[in-house]
Amino acid sequence: MGALFTTILTGPAFAQDGAKPSDAVDPFIGTGGEGHTFPGAVAPFGMVQLSPDTDTSCVIRTCYGHAAGYRYDDPTIEGFSHTHFSGAGHSDLGDILVMPVSGDSVPMDPGTPAAPGYRSRFSHATEVAKPGYYAVTLDGPGVRAEMTAGTRIGVHRYSFPKGKAAHIVVDLRSSLYNYPGKILWSGLHMRDDGVLTGFRETRGWAPGRKLYFAMRFSAPLVGHALVNREKDIAYKGFQGPGRGSDALAEKLGQALEARLDFGQLDAPLEVKVGISGVDEAGALANLDSEPGGFDAVRTKTQGDWDTALGAVKFEAAAPMRRIFATALYHSLLAPSVWSDSDGRYRGPDDQVHQADGFTVRSTFSLWDTFRAEHPLLTLIQPEKTNTDIVRSLIASQRHSPDGILPVWQFAGRETWTMIGYHAVPVIADAYMKGIGGFDADAALQAMVASADRASYGGLGEYIQRGYVPIDKEPEAASKTVEYAYDDWTIARMARRMGKTEIAERFEKRAGNWRNSFDAKTGWLRARLANGAFRTPFDPTAINYGSDYTEGNAWQYSWFVPQDQAGLFRLLGGDAKTVKKLDAMFEFDNSKVDYSHAEDIAGLIGQYIHGNEPSHHVAYLYNYAGAPWRTQERLGQIVASQYGAKPEGLSGNDDLGQMSAWLVFTALGFYPVAPGSNEYVIGRPFLSQATLALPSGKQFAIRTDNLSDANPYIRSVTLNGTPLTRSYLRDDEIRQGGELRFVMGAQPNKAWGKGAKARPFSSSTAGSNGPARKGTRRRGDDPTTRR
């Protein structure tokens, strides 16, 4: 297996000592291929993601490859907009596009790469991307463009060629995920002090999304024009108040642009922009809440990044150092700040609310991020970050017209994309780990309300029958097992809180995964309302809207994170389970066509690392007493699915999930079942690492004999004591200490083999599982293995 590690572990070792943590990050990783990340400027969890858009001309699903606005292989830049997703599988945002223009003529349309208007060609050789900073030279206007961002602001700096007039085009028509009529209404207002404010309401992935901005310039305007281009578009759509105003100081409509003229400048032009989901006054207040010009904002944001990234100090060989640092960076972009500097925010009911003592977060890609992204934040971010996340989820449910926790939410608006109610494990995992600062009773009520919402995703049928029937609801097999896992996390939290009735009800529901598992064939399958499994059946088939969500039976038959031991018994025991896991990774796909499925990327047999349902599967060998097989598979995955290049992510980063998987895996352990307070040990890819924990303590990971030739764990010690089990407890990490791996050329097949050495499963740990010591809080009930 040694050859699998060549591209990851060879090369000289680099330490972070003497260098800033941000120096190792390469924001271009993931901007090519299927990563869907952006290279632009953003602060940790920032509301503003100021980044170049290389193409916004695509429509609806053809925007998939440009979901982040920027694609590395595009030759031109259309402009710089202020909101972007990092690695989403769906496009939207791209708000408030700004583009510099020089000379006497000012084109007001972007044009095409072949016939540019304000669009410009560029060379990657002129690009610089670092945490909180992006720069590029635009060939067309001859302008050096630089970007930085604070929490709620973005700052542009444009160096125009001498002797040429400087102009800025602000285009409110431009956005990602375009189609006629997306812009429901927009406005531009040139204020007496030269500040440009405005807004727009869009109907895209999230309906009725409102965004406001305020834009201030470092040089005075010598002229401007606010232009309504509606005569050039066929769709008229929403008719709002004030339509058709011809006043130079204000313009309302659906296709607005501003031309801003500055004459010839002797110094770079700085454009400082604040945004808000509340109103223009909020955007102005946000603009003023982070003082200073370009350099001051850049310096502060770089410091913020060095603090955030410094939570993990590590040493690794090149290129793993670059891959790991960038993965850590990508895991700290979302969920993004959504409330204004005064605490106001727009909720899912489209009303303005006031946050009481916490910062509201949005951009919740929960089907993806409950798995590793949120568990990672509980270890490497201050408790306040995690408290803010939980309080934001609770507040969203309270304001939701549907009474449900967020599913896939951004800018306070619900998209109803993906399945499950995966805000539930995020809350439960935080609570079980002792993270406080929120009302646990209110949280549990919100979790139960979401799980009992009969009108959502076949839940009524699930509650009545114990499974979701495929002739009543699409993607029924996936929904059944994901609901069952979510239910288990409700039971875990309720049991810890002493809410026995709730705990027992949801412990029973957590076993519903069995109702869609066909023990005769060994597959998770969709069942009809009459109880029969649907036929015909092909475990390799992937058809959206069918039995499974972005996957097939090969991936979803392993999704029982709360009770892998129970699943393995149905499969016939350890040997048969290992054989089936091997068959998944070694499956011959030569006769399988997945070209119709956008999210199916990064295949290793039927293991699909580019999408989330597979992410825990390599760790399942541990549950069958064969951790050495997990170690082999992880080497195979890391070497083939990650790289220090623009195409370095095999699939969508999905708001940090792909990156968080790599961070955990490189450290040597992974949260297979968030809510269990355990991490399954894999194998490390770093020579050493130290976690600066929220408590102020440190947890060190040391790896002896790490090399291409030594891919296997020979032994593990925790604080100097041999560790013979293949899992870590959360409290063991939070107490601080040292985890030491000794690597070797041959596997230690005895390590982690015994039944008591295996990770948590509810059916072997007792109904109150895990029946082990874990992080405990006020009033916790003591539990022991039985």
Automatic annotation (TrEMBL):
Residues 25-276 form the Glycosyl hydrolase family 92 N-terminal domain. The keyword Hydrolase applies. Residues 777-786 have a biased composition (Basic and acidic residues). Residues 750-786 are annotated as: Disordered. Residues 283-744 form the Glycosyl hydrolase family domain. It holds the Pfam family Glyco_hydro_92N. The keyword Hydrolase applies. Keywords: Hydrolase. GO terms for molecular function: hydrolase activity. PANTHER family: PEPTIDE N-GLYCANASE PNGASE -RELATED, SECRETED PROTEIN. This is Glycoside hydrolase family 92 protein. It comes from Sphingomonas albertensis.
